[in-house]
Amino acid sequence: MIDKNKETVQVAFRQRLLDWFATHQRPLPWRRTYEPYQVWIAEIMGQQTQMERVVAYFQRWMERFPDIGAVAAAPEQAILKAWEGLGYYSRARNIQKAAGRILTEANGEIPTSYRQLLDLPGIGPYTAAAILSIAYNQPYPLLDANVERLFARLDDINRPLKTSKTRKKLEAMAATLLDRNDPRHFNQALMELGALICTPKKPACPQCPVQPHCRAYRADTVEFRPLPTARDKRIDIIMACGIIVHHEQFFIQQRLADDIWGGLWEFPGGRLLERETPEHCAVREVEEETGWRVSDPVPFMTVVHHYTRYRVTLHAFFCRSPVPLPKPVLTAASRYAWVPLAGLVDYPFPAGHRQLITALRKRDFSGK
């Protein structure tokens, strides 16, 4: 930022930003009332999720769970199903845990205290500050990825964002620039500007309301800010699963609560061993997880799913079940179900298995 007459410049910066936001802000549903419960849900959903998807999920969530009481009273499976597709399912479980705490400890009112918010499951420093700033209009600065990128350009920071020195610089900027009279709109305006104008690629500098304050623009270094950080090496995970159909019912099992996708449902399967074929893996995993010795694996399809730095390749096979079919002995699941094809959509599944179900629903199983 320009150093001369700092206070005057900061006032001008805030006014330019707020004027732009008043005209160009997106009509996000939680902005209609800034009801704390809605702000909280939107913030949790917005973690590592594009805004268009957040809006769609938010609206469905609010129809199903219009208030904290509805969340606390809902079966966990209903919570997970409503969250299906957003990933990081611990967020959904933490919402329900926090809702129960809020009902019993705070009379159903989301706390207005930073420390009390931090004490709730799933609420960290950023989310607590966002709730206080956006829902309660309290003067807490916010730093999300959009704001970090914006600040790196405003101050032409020639260091990677993830260093401790840079982080302290960004936090100082956020605190100094914060409009303490209107933190709700100011913080959202910063994030909105980063999302709509100061984008990672091809930022719309001519339309930027704070362009006169941007050092990178004057130095012609916008496209080089922020400095790129070394990417984590991608990790490939190869898996296989067995699809077992008996009397037009599909066998599915629920993952253990402490698993990465705990509480979700799946076709039995797991990771390939070294030098193991997908077919052999599917047969072995079904036996290990159910006690069944299935046979004749027939390829169905292979799906690929990405999350964080992992790429998961899932090979699916139809497997012939033993006759007669004994009760499964579960070793990697909490319970099981036999479900008709049309009923599979009622259960929450991880992304790869949802792709399989979508493909299954397009097939004719009258002869299976």
Q: Strand order within the widest sheet?
A: 5-1-7-6
Order of helices and strands: HHHHHHHHHHHHEEEEEHEEEH
From the 3D structure, determine the CATH topology of the largest domain: Endonuclease III, domain 1
Beta content comes to: 5-15%
What separation lies between the terminal Cα atoms?
68 Å
Domain count: 2
- SS field, number of helical segments: 14
The second-level CATH architecture of the largest domain is: Orthogonal Bundle
What form results from the Cα inertia axes?
elongated
Mean pLDDT: 94
Instruction: Classify the helix fraction into a percent range.
Output: 40-55%
* Strand runs, count: 8
Q: Give the biggest sheet.
A: 4 strands, mixed
Rg, Å, rounded:
25 Å
Name of the CATH first level of the largest domain: Mainly Alpha
Flag low-confidence runs.
none
Structural class by helix and strand composition: alpha+beta
Short description:
This protein is of the alpha+beta class and 368 residues long. It has helices spanning 6-24, 36-45, 51-64, 68-73, 76-83, 90-105, 114-118, 125-135, 145-154, 164-177, 183-196, 215-219, 278-290, 351-360, and strands spanning 235-243, 245-246, 249-255, 265-266, 269-271, 295-307, 310-320, 333-340.
